[in-house]
Specification:
The complex is a heterodimer.
Chain A (H helix, E strand, L loop, with lengths): L2 E4 L4 E4 L4 E3 L1 E4 L5 E7 L5 E7 L5 E4 L2 E4 L9 E3 L8 E8 L10 E2 L3 E6 L1
Parallel strand pairs in A: 2-12
Antiparallel strand pairs in A: 1-4, 3-9, 5-6, 5-10, 7-8, 8-9, 10-11, 10-12
Chain B lengths: L4 E3 L2 E4 L5 E6 L6 E7 L6 E7 L2 E4 L8 E4 L6 E5 L8 E8 L9 E2 L3 E5 L1
Parallel strand pairs in B: 2-11
Antiparallel strand pairs in B: 1-3, 3-8, 4-5, 4-9, 5-6, 7-8, 9-10, 9-11
The chains are: A mainly beta, B mainly beta.
Chain lengths: 115, 115
């Protein structure tokens, strides 16, 4: 079955520091990969996605590259801000087949950015 | 426009009580999903509707869980005879269609606490 393993948190950084949150996956077939973000008191929001190998998803200064050879989709940002403090979830969806609507999530990584 | 809304936002139930959680999807969204998020975990898929048809209920943890979407819009997740292990945040999501390219938009969730 499908599974996602992401870096355990919490992660605490100072403003303008470099961020990496590791994510690896196991999937049957060839999944689409996602990063979701959950700000305090809000619902999950799609941050970025990639649908094929070597694709780079990017949004709001965050990037992640779909690495099929290492089954990874690590999230990076060059300079974090206090407003980036949130919980980040890596997720996947199987492509094609009968259950390509189910999102499988990692456990989430809490990021706190201090001024 | 309005996003996905859920009510109540918080629910406290005594063990053995029945509860009903409501989801109002984005207007016109055909697909609707329920996920369960236990404390410190990522969301896990419960069930999926395409219009009023429940096409997948494989994630429902027991026969005490029941979901419906009778008119293809609002959905209700009902839990009968609640147990302490049912304590979690219940997330609803909707999308225009269900395929792997269609973004799921999440509501803020209902936090259920069973005493």
């Amino acid at each position: 079955g499908n599974s996602v393993t992401q870096m355990e948190g919490p992660v605490t950084l100072s403003e303008e520091a470099f961020l990496t949150i590791n994510c690896t996956y196991t999937a049957t077939g060839y999944p689409s990969l996602f990063w979701y973000v959950q700000y305090p008191g809000e619902g999950l929001q799609l941050l970025l996605k990639a649908t094929k190998a070597d694709d780079k998803g990017s949004n709001k200064g965050f990037e992640a590259t779909y690495r099929k050879e290492t089954t990874s989709f690590h999230l990076e940002k060059g300079s974090v801000q206090v407003s980036d403090s949130a919980v980040y979830f890596c997720a996947l969806k199987s492509r094609g087949g009968g259950s390509n609507y189910k999102l499988t999530f990692g456990k989430g990584t809490l990021l706190t950015v201090n001024p | 426009g309005a996003g996905v809304s859920q009510s109540p936002r918080y629910k406290v139930a005594k063990r053995g009580q029945d509860v009903a959680l409501r989801c109002d999807p984005i207007s016109g969204h055909v697909s609707l999903f329920w996920y369960q998020q236990a404390l410190g975990q990522g969301p896990e898929f419960l069930t999926y509707f395409q219009n009023e048809a429940q096409l997948d209920k494989s994630g429902l943890p027991s026969d005490r869980f029941f979901a419906e979407r009778p008119e293809g819009s609002v959905s209700t997740l009902k839990i009968q005879r609640t147990q302490q292990e049912d304590s979690a945040v219940y997330l609803c999501a909707s999308s225009t269609q269900a395929g792997d390219y269609n973004e799921q938009f999440f509501g803020p969730g209902t936090r259920l606490t069973v005493l």
